[in-house]
Design goal:
Blueprint: E1 8-12, E2 16-21, E3 29-33, E4 39-42, E5 52-56, E6 58-65, E7 68-83, E8 86-98, H1 108-125, E9 130-132, H2 142-146, H3 150-154, H4 157-160, H5 173-176, E10 189-200, E11 203-213, E12 237-245, E13 248-256, E14 263-264, E15 276-277, H6 283-298, E16 300-305, E17 316-321, E18 327-332, H7 342-353, E19 360-364, H8 367-370, H9 379-385, H10 387-393, E20 396-398, E21 404-406, E22 410-415, H11 421-442, H12 455-477, H13 484-489, H14 494-513, H15 515-526, H16 546-567, H17 573-596
Parallel strand pairs: 13-22, 16-19, 16-22, 18-19
Antiparallel strand pairs: 1-2, 1-5, 2-3, 3-4, 6-7, 7-8, 8-9, 9-10, 10-11, 11-12, 12-13, 13-20, 14-15, 17-18, 20-21
Helix pairs in contact: 1-15, 11-12, 16-17
Length: 614
């Protein structure tokens, strides 16, 4: 099987970078000309003795900024375990190295813009969750890998990778253009990976959880919602649970993703901005592309929509007859009519009904309504309702003799508004049910034993799924996940509610005042925006509207004067109240104007025009 080199030395001279592969028996050096940017393959004897040398862990790629080309490398890595005998690593530290020896050729404005772009790249790199393996393909599930041809396994890791999950694909484009350099090209996945040795009944097995975030329509919580014209959904994550025991392999795959039609939810200083469904886009085109792709890759789909939904017919299954030999089934639970999520659920259900596809089931479950007043045991209603479907979809299993026992024929596609907190809770419950069957079939669990009764493993399982929730939430929303107390303990606690409130406040601040920068960082990293080296107009030079500074100053001054007048009483109480009421009214009026013009006061993306993300 094709691999990527594992160890490197970076030799630097004023003219070139020499990246030496240090694997045993290898004489390969990647030479990068710092003037022409040309990449060539050479040998160790061509490295000048005068070069400055340091070890690195891998090449992420190259990117062009205002100052010219930059080389991005991994300088430190952490082993997270072994998957089927292959070491899996997390990239921990990075370095961004300029081809140019200085930035003296830049104007003051250009130098500042270059510094901003560098901080954007660093912002993405320091978002925890980049993983890689030099001799195993982390971008594919075990089932996809098992269904490939021998020729596929001979391809380089970069060529054979699922491009949805290669986060540095844009940065590796120069290496990708030259097949002889592919052994230097290290695909990175972004998300979460945990590998744990576990013991039940004295039998040791490996339990693995992998979440792969898609780099298509990637971004942050409020600036990237719905789908794009190609059908790529925001915050799409493929999560695979793997069990390895005495040569046998089992895998269960689920997906999550934003509701797949054209809708947005721009931050505007309000705690929860109102979602807006586009009136200009043709929703069914993108919707169809999304599910055509999902059905091709994963087979049958059961959509679990966990948002607040409109009142359904009596609890049960409703078959909608379509002008087609198939039908789509829609299952609804008792739900709440209120809230801004209702129109989204209605639109989703209507589009599923109009898809004319018997491969797609839709279930609306009002998570908040059903689980209100700490009744989290009611989640079992949803798990029980899809148990027959889960048994039909099954999972992937290969026995110790490498014989295929069963394949997974469909997936559950879960979503709430953010596809984070509620979604992760439901996914962990479905994954446990699948794991129960797998471990019994493999002979780890005895007949009649339940996973919930295995205290040591339950602790590992719950904490891993809670950590998965936190990782996905930080990468999309900027904070840890909500509701992780239930995932970790199986109970909803008051302390958990308090921590949810704290995280919600942090999310509010980040969503309004720092997510524009984070969105720009992701667009730059993924190649959605290309930097122009010329000294022309740059998106970074766009200035805020005059209202931003003027109204803010007036409100702060008025509020300050209100406090001062209250603390420093005048000659009479009436005089004091007049001053307090005047300045209080001034601050209230300006605060109202600021909220009315909320879109002008939030940190909005500058690099990619808003309409391109709707």
């Amino acid at each position: 099987m094709a691999t990527v080199y594992e160890r490197y030395n970076l030799h630097t001279t004023p003219e070139k970078f020499y990246i030496e592969a240090c694997d045993e028996g290898v004489d390969a050096v990647l030479a990068i000309d710092r003037v022409s940017s040309e990449m060539t393959l050479t040998g160790k004897t061509d490295v000048p003795p005068s070069a400055v040398t340091r070890p690195i862990c891998g090449i992420i790629g190259t990117i062009r900024l205002v100052a010219g080309m930059y080389l991005i490398v991994i300088t430190r890595k952490k082993n997270v375990g072994s998957l089927l005998g292959h070491a899996v690593w997390k990239a921990v530290d990075f370095d961004i190295i300029s081809y140019k020896k200085s930035v003296l050729h830049l104007s003051e404005i250009q130098a500042q813009e270059n510094k901003t772009f560098l901080s954007m790249i660093n912002n993405v790199l320091m978002t925890d969750g980049f993983y890689f393996c030099t001799d195993f393909d982390l971008t594919h599930t075990l089932q996809r890998l098992a269904n490939t041809s021998p020729d596929f396994h001979e391809m380089s890791l970069l060529e054979r990778a699922d491009q949805r999950f290669v986060w540095n694909g844009n940065l590796l484009r120069e290496l990708a253009a030259q097949p002889e350099l592919h052994k230097f090209a290290l695909p990175l996945v972004h998300g979460f990976i945990i590998i744990r040795p576990c013991r039940i009944n004295g039998k040791v097995f490996e339990w693995v959880l992998i979440s792969r975030r898609s780099c298509f329509r990637a971004g942050v919580r409020y600036y990237v919602r719905g789908i794009d014209s190609e059908g790529h959904a925001a915050n799409f994550v493929e999560t695979e649970q793997i069990v390895l025991f005495e040569g046998a392999k089992a895998s269960f795959v689920q997906t999550r993703g934003s509701m797949p039609f054209f809708w947005s939810q721009r931050p505007n200083l309000k705690y929860k901005p109102k979602p807006i469904i586009s009136k200009t886009m043709v929703h069914m085109d993108g919707f169809q592309r999304h599910f055509d792709s999902q059905l091709l890759i994963y087979g049958k789909q059961t959509v679990l929509n966990l948002v607040r939904a409109p009142p359904p017919p009596p609890i049960g299954q409703l078959s909608i007859t379509l002008p087609h030999p198939f039908s789509c089934s829609v299952l609804c639970f008792q739900v709440n009519q209120k809230g801004s999520e209702k129109p989204l659920e209605q639109a989703f259900a209507k589009m599923v009904s109009g898809l004319n596809n018997g491969m797609l089931n839709y279930i609306a479950f009002d998570f908040h309504k059903e689980c209100s007043h700490m009744r989290w045991d009611r989640l079992q209603l949803l798990v029980d309702s899809v148990s027959d479907t889960q048994d039909e979809y099954s999972y992937f299993l290969v026995n110790s003799e490498e014989k295929l026992v069963v394949q997974q024929k469909g997936v559950f596609r879960s979503n709430c508004m953010d596809c984070l907190d509620r979604t992760n809770v439901i996914q962990s419950l479905l994954a446990r049910r699948s794991l129960q069957s797998q471990l019994q079939r493999m002979g780890v669990l005895n007949v009649g034993q339940r996973i919930e009764e295995q205290a040591e493993f339950e602790k590992i399982y719950k904490n891993a799924w809670a950590d998965n929730a936190n990782a996905c939430a930080v990468q999309y929303a900027g904070t840890g996940a909500l509701k992780t107390d239930f995932t970790r303990t199986g109970k909803r606690t008051r302390w958990g509610l308090l921590m949810d409130g704290w995280n919600a406040m942090i999310r509010y601040y980040k969503n309004n005042f720092s997510d524009g920068f984070r969105q720009d960082s992701i667009d730059l990293f993924l190649g959605n925006f290309a930097v122009d080296e010329s000294d022309g107009a740059s998106p970074l030079r766009v200035q805020k509207d005059w209202k931003f500074l003027t109204l803010l100053i007036i409100m702060l001054v008025a509020f300050s004067m209100c406090i001062v007048c209250f603390l420093m009483a005048g000659d009479t109480w009436t005089e004091t109240m007049v001053y307090v009421m005047f300045w209080g009214a001034a601050s209230a009026i300006t605060a109202t104007l600021i909220l009315f013009n909320g879109h002008d006061f939030v940190d909005a993306p500058k690099l990619v025009h808003k309409e391109k993300m709707d």
